[in-house]
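Notebook entry, structure prediction.
Reason for the run: the old model in the group folder had no record of what sequence produced it. Starting over properly, with the input documented here first.
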Amino acid sequence: MIEQPALALLELRSIARGVRACDEVLKKAEVQLLDARTLCPGKYMILFAGPVGPVEESFRMGLDIGADMMVDEMFLPNAHTQIIPAMEACAAPPPVDALAVFETFTVASTILAGDAAAKAAGIHLIEMRLANGLGGKSFFTMTGAIADIEAAVEAGKKTIEHLGALVAVEVMARPHKDLIGKVT
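New structure, fully documented this time:
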């Protein structure tokens, strides 16, 4: 795993253009492809990471290729170290005091909100689901002390409020143990 990587996301309304953009992104600079796939309804997502300079260079190439087919994009230098493990759903959570589910309309807004949440408070990101079988929506779950969860939620909301991408956030103090087993 890359320490404090830059992350970039390109979401296109054309699958064909998305595949071409992905090829050009990977050829432009030395970056790590984290995900490239179709999304509902008929879109294509490219997610990659690496050092800031190469990621930014590849991101700009992807924007140029995507041009009029771009739906959403994100460039996040110095992403929090919990972001990639949460995307891979391999983050083992500590004991759960409080649980929050943060749901958005876009992949980019979920990543940005999760990054802001992790940087704002001592929370633990559990999982980040990026539009996989969700009709284009995305969400992340986090755990921590209730005060930290509340601070993280506010930071996440503040980061994406101008995008109009927030669907819902739910915070549960002392969630039931059977629920914990299903979300961790």
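Summary: The chain has a mean pLDDT of 91.
The old model has been moved to the deprecated folder.
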